[in-house]
């Protein structure tokens, strides 16, 4: 079972409690709930309960729209201390490599993107005979990304499935195509999360809003913020401007290579950057638990996009703020009720994050663990326990956050050193 205390969670909300009961009692369940309401944990808790740890066969599949969500879902299972083996499957890496990992790990739970899961199923890389539960997380996003045919084919490959669970942040007529009969849990009209978000707008005297954005970020200090823009090119332009002004910012969009996306996202969630500039790619499927501000640099396409963006903040009963930056000729969208927030121009330097991130060129395949990395950094790098932050160990490399003030001296100490007798690369991620 997943232990909530290990995830830093005290209790479940009403939606999660009702979802757990529905999952236990019903075969087909559809949960409609806003972004950021805790849907992933709502299905993971009862799903893990239904799996047999002693049975080395795949018993459940979870379909997700992105590789980031696949990895993060598996990480929740691991961090929660569940005694089952979970594995993420996604594109951007060789399928043969995943096949070998499947044979070695023998997971009870697979979480993956539709195309990659279907590829493994059609090739017979894992048996479907023991699979009794199928979950589609962010069903509406899967449809938006064009995965309907892949999902239909996955359904056809799993005739023995007894439970089907669809989760979506919007209602959709396609649901009945996948589940003709189901128990419906509708929390879309819930205003609980929205009430915890303070909505504000900032007026920019110029059509180019960069200066106003910088002033706004200076006014919120060291708080964490996602800056949403409308285009990939805008991500690069805005992030470049902020870095030139001394801000520490990550950038994210669909045109980046997977390796780059992983680095940028880790830096943000680990606290090595306090600003993430992104397209709507960051509006869904990212597990960012404690975000202070959502900043709409470009206006969202519609109300639904606005809701999804705002869903990044005020998660798990926290409070957050949503800022819209309006140009001289831009009106406030009719679906937004917001108060004016005034910023003044400042020449002071931006506050720096408390952490920096280091790339280590070895990972799970080299038998490296989080404990190995933490111990190595304290023994060889001279760091104290409190100087080591988040650690992510991937198959062939690792990321770790360390105290920013001690970064230079630590890298000097690590130069030429071996971790578990293996020579590797230690470099600052920037």
Account of the protein in words:
The chain has 15 helices and 20 strands. It has three domains: 9-186, Rossmann fold, CATH 3.40.50; 194-340, Rossmann fold (3-Layer(aba) Sandwich); 355-429, RRM (RNA recognition motif) domain (Alpha-Beta Plaits), CATH 3.30.70.330. The protein has helices spanning 14-25, 39-49, 67-79, 95-105, 114-122, 139-144, 148-156, 175-178, 192-195, 210-220, 232-244, 258-269, 303-310, 370-379, 407-414, and strands at residues 28-32, 60-63, 86-89, 109-112, 133-136, 163-168, 183-186, 197-203, 225-228, 249-252, 275-278, 293-296, 320-326, 339-340, 355-360, 388-393, 398-403, 418-419, 422-423, 426-429. The strands form four sheets. Strands 3-4-2-5-6-1-7 form a seven-stranded parallel β-sheet, sandwiched between helices. It has a seven-stranded parallel β-sheet with strand order 10-11-9-12-13-8-14. Strands 16-17-15-20 form a four-stranded antiparallel β-sheet, with helices on both faces. Helix 1 packs parallel to helix 2 (39-49). A hairpin with a 4-residue loop joins strand 16 and strand 17 (398-403). The two termini are 38 Å apart. It is 33% helix and 21% strand. With 430 residues, the chain is α/β, with parallel strands linked by helices.
